[in-house]
Amino acid sequence: MLRAGIVGLPNVGKSTLFNAVTRTRKAEAANYPFCTIEPNVGVVTVPDSRLEVLSKISGSQKLIPAAIEMVDIAGLVKGASQGEGLGNKFLSHIREVDAIIQVVRCFEDEDIHHVSGSVDPLRDIEVILTELVLVDLESVQKRKDRSAKNVRSGDKTAKAEVALLEKLEPHLNSGKPAITFEMTDDERALAKNFFLLTSKATLFACNVKESDLPEVMAGKRDSATGKRVAAVEQYCKEHLGAECVIISAQIEAELMDLTPEEAADYLKDLGVAESGVGALIRAVYHLLGLRTYLTTGEKETRAWTIHVGDKAPAAAGVIHSDFERGFIAAETVAYEDLVALGSYAKAREAGKLRVEGKEYVVKDGDVMDFRFNV
Predict the structure, then answer these.
(1) Across the 374 residues of the chain, what is the mean pLDDT of every consecutive 10-residue run?
(2) Distance between CA atoms of 205 and 124, rounded to whole angstroms?
(3) CB contact at 8 A, 4 and 284
(4) Which among 89, 38, 45, 93 is positioned nearest to 69, based on CA atoms?
(5) Cβ-based neighbours of 125, under 8 Å, separated by 6 or more
(6) What are phi and psi of 290, to 5 degrees?
(7) Residue 108 phi, psi dihedral angles, 5° rounding
(8) Contacts of 126 (CB under 8 A, 6+ apart)
(9) Which residues have a Cβ under 8 Å from the Cβ of 347 and sit 6 or more positions away?
(10) Is residue 297 classed exposed, middle or buried when 0-12, 13-18 and 19+ CB atoms within 10 A define those classes?
């Protein structure tokens, strides 16, 4: 299962958010730096309204959503690349995740201490980016020295590595993350072996106070909080090519103790259509390069996780390796077509139920039934 790590400066709401997305109280959330030391890990289900709709068509007994892992990682401070705070632990834990969610504090609260003494989300983003870039620079320099020795013995891979590292080093030296460095497909495959922290896909979560959420979610950027969110959105788009999601960890913590019906009423009273956590989880799922196909029947309706570009046999193999090994074909209908027509029979009559072969690239929302022989 792929993992996303929740990172940020101390006291920005990381642990509160982790508790909310995992629906647990594993992570201690306290008003002092480094209340998280060892990472907390939790499995997060991916909200998908399609499951309930399909279950009504099939009369399913249960629903099984897709899932990913979230990791709450210790707060980072300036100088972490040199071991400040819990720097070395923090950085080693980041290496173990597949994508990063950086929680950025956009709210004012005199009762919650900020390690830098004031709220400035762009400064906070640059603190973390700088520390990660410094670590990557050190890794690149060490890797280049090792590979250079192998070049002298005629190693062609080492020669290609050195050429790439020499181009990558000045990019990092200018303070830019590796993920924004343009590479060919061959170079990208080579760079995977460098395990650079700034090569990981990153999503930014703008954490706002409960009272500010409705206005900010409505797209208003006039308040102090709104202006901070707008600055983060612009910075991430222009400099990092990254997406931002707006959340209120404070609200999400309160929703944990409510039933789904009570939570819906609570959000409605606030003037918010959906919990920010749902949007965050879906964004992370896509950030990890994951997509969902669906199966449905009387026993269960289930979301199955695949990677972007996976073909039908690989998708079948997610259910069982025998399905992939003995793959014959996949009966496939788009979720929207099945729901619009109301049944498999009507989808077949309308020509919307297709039989796809081994080269078919599965699309998000395909409802599938596999034929196989082993």
Answers:
(1) 88 85 60 52 92 96 94 71 53 87 92 84 93 92 91 87 95 95 94 94 94 92 95 94 92 86 90 85 94 97 97 97 96 97 95 97 97 90
(2) 13
(3) yes
(4) 45
(5) 102, 104, 204, 232, 235, 236
(6) -105, 150
(7) -95, 135
(8) none
(9) 333, 337, 338, 341, 353
(10) middle
